[in-house]
Amino acid sequence: MAATRSIKNKHREPRQKKNPSMATLPTPSRRRKPRTLATVSAILAVLLVISVVCLLLVSSNTWRAFQQVVSYETISVVNEFPHDPQAFTQGLLYAGNDTLFESTGLYKKSSVRKVALRTGKVEKLQKLDDSLFGEGLTLLSNRLIQVTWMQTNGFIYDLKNLSKVCCFTYLLM
């Protein structure tokens, strides 16, 4: 019988002795070990390298688009028109019937003018106040709209005779 008892004892799991001071503490649960600083650093380094490579690819493709050289063989000048070399052009638009409308700048020299395209002759001229610097010009219906530089003044002109229809102000951004 003693031999049988020893075989049974071999198959049994060993009993753990209870420590009375540890009896009240909960048994520790298995938790994943936190990632080490080296692992986090390695992941950040890989992400940084991937980001830099992506940025370089995007920027090199964009740069190549700007580097396309214009071949002068593909450009042909079809006509040249005379123009007042003293005019500091700020706005220019073609209104049909060989007519240009031009806004010129510079203090004491700003104007809106109607110009014959073929001759460059100024057909009509509306001078701005000497304190204004003429800027952009656009055509809307039968009205020319001009704005000034660094002031908040704008003017609306009649297309036929360049008379001022009204003035307006705008906000500079």
UniProtKB/TrEMBL annotation:
InterPro entries: QCT. Keywords: Membrane, Transmembrane, Transmembrane helix. Coiled coil: none annotated. Residues 1-33 are annotated as: Disordered. Pfam families: Glu_cyclase_2 (PF05096). Residues 7-18 have a biased composition (Basic residues). It comes from the Eukaryota. PANTHER family: GLUTAMINYL-PEPTIDE CYCLOTRANSFERASE. This is Uncharacterized protein. It comes from Pisum sativum.
